[in-house]
Specification:
Strand content: 15-25%
Radius of gyration: 18 Å
Distance between the termini: 31 Å
Shape: globular
Largest sheet: 7 strands, mixed
CATH topology of the largest domain: Rossmann fold
CATH superfamily of the largest domain: Vaccinia Virus protein VP39
Number of helices: 9
Helix content: 40-55%
Number of domains: 2
Structural class: alpha/beta
CATH architecture of the largest domain: 3-Layer(aba) Sandwich
Strand order of the largest sheet: 3-2-1-4-5-9-6
């Protein structure tokens, strides 16, 4: 399951299972393949890997199942229940090392990793730009000299942001901000522009507003349902930006090298 961290992964899975099966699978596994490619081209024969914000481990497993050669993957996750689930889920078939409960801000280790990767977790790294920059600065310190940092997140022009009624995330969460931040520090940054779409055809062809209001909660990262007026305004935006029944959630995978 695609790991968005907008609620828990289980809730996302329950609500969007049918949409995911029809619409996310092809796009998402192409993105997973790009992450795996970057891991597999890292030269260490015994890769030490860190997943930041592993959730319940679903995306982690999709990636680790395709890693070539020997590796050990440590897990960092602030939700203790999700981390416990991930550990139990992954250790059956994957080489899992230490499991760290906590956030990136509180994470401390003497380890240096060959690969640090994270998928759509950067939205929660800081409440203001100063704190956010502190976390961005911290990430390269987790790498060894030949290590590779992989950050998957949304670009500024993603339809995800365009259809919002309320601006949930500040501008410093955008992929462009992260890429510019590391370039200014002298790191080599490659940006891979990848395709991700969300099927909204069901919402557009039904008179029911239940799925629309659930989708509103997903987009705005909230547990609150919109009122009818907000729902109709949200629907207008979906109609404006949809193409062929899909909303474009194009992802950027940033590959950062020291």
């Amino acid at each position: 399951m695609a790991k968005w961290h907008f609620w828990g992964e289980k809730e996302f899975s329950d609500v969007y299972e049918n949409i995911y099966i029809r619409s996310f699978a092809e796009d998402w596994f192409g993105i997973v393949a790009e992450i795996v490619k970057e891991i597999n081209t890292q030269n260490s024969p015994n890769k030490l890997v860190l997943d930041i914000g592993c959730g319940e481990g679903h995306t982690t497993k999709q990636i680790l199942d395709r890693v070539e050669g020997d590796y050990i993957c440590d897990l960092l996750e602030p939700n203790q229940n999700a981390l416990s689930s991930a550990k139990a889920f992954l250790t059956l078939e994957n080489n899992i090392g230490e499991c760290f409960p906590g956030s990136l801000a509180t994470f401390k280790t003497d380890k240096k990793y060959d690969i640090v990767f994270t998928s759509h977790t950067n939205y929660y790294w800081g409440l203001n730009e100063k704190d956010y920059n502190a976390q961005l600065s911290k990430l390269p310190d987790l790498l060894n000299n030949d290590g590779k940092l992989l950050i998957l997140t949304l670009p500024e022009d993603s339809d995800h942001y365009k259809i919002m009624l309320q601006q949930v995330y500040p501008e410093f969460n955008y992929a462009e901000y992260i890429a510019d931040f590391y370039k200014k520090l002298g790191f080599k940054v490659e940006v891979k522009r990848l395709r991700m779409r969300m099927f909204v055809g069901d919402i557009l062809t039904t008179n029911s507003r239940f799925d629309l209001k659930i989708f509103y909660r997903f987009i705005h990262n909230t547990d609150s349902f919109p009122n009818d007026t907000e729902a109709e305004e949200f629907l207008k935006k979906i109609k404006e930006y949809q193409k062929g029944g899909y909303i474009d959630f194009s992802d950027h995978l940033m590959v950062v090298l020291k």
